[in-house]
Amino acid sequence: MTTQTDEAIQVVAVNGGVGFPSSTRSLTDALVREVAASAPGVSTRTIDVRDLASDIAEATVMGLGSATLDESLRAVERADLVVAGTPVFRGSYAGLFKGFWDLVDPVAMRGKPVLLAATGGSSRHQLMIDQAMRPLFAYFGALVVPTAVYAAKDDFAVAGAPGAELAARVERAGREAARLTQAAARVA
Description:
single chain, Rossmann fold, seven-stranded mixed beta sheet, 7 helices, globular, disordered N terminus
């Protein structure tokens, strides 16, 4: 955790989207921008798990990590705030997204603020955040931001930008995440 007020807050987004372009990436980017706008001195990075697919598989099956995967895992473990975004697949998070989190050190996540986000084809999948993602991050002992953001296809406007209602939810969640991260840094 950042403990000095003059240090940048390290925000790492983990994008579980596998498509290109990715609505999940658009959502995580919007959340990261809002956190950066809500807190001074924010440094950001996004990890696209699709770029690590073969590395995640080899680390999981054969125990062979790669330098790129190891560096990505360390970035998450060192972050002051994690934005975790995934598309909904069959009522839960993407398998590749879960594979990445299976490799993260649970001790490093204890007490770390995490902002949850998910995308799906319709609003009927929005409870996935509460039924699948919150328990995953509770296992880690993470400090989950109260407002999570779910976005369906209809929530995006032209060119993948958040529509007005989604933008309002992103703004609320980003502000909460920034305040929670700053508070966590003060008590660390």
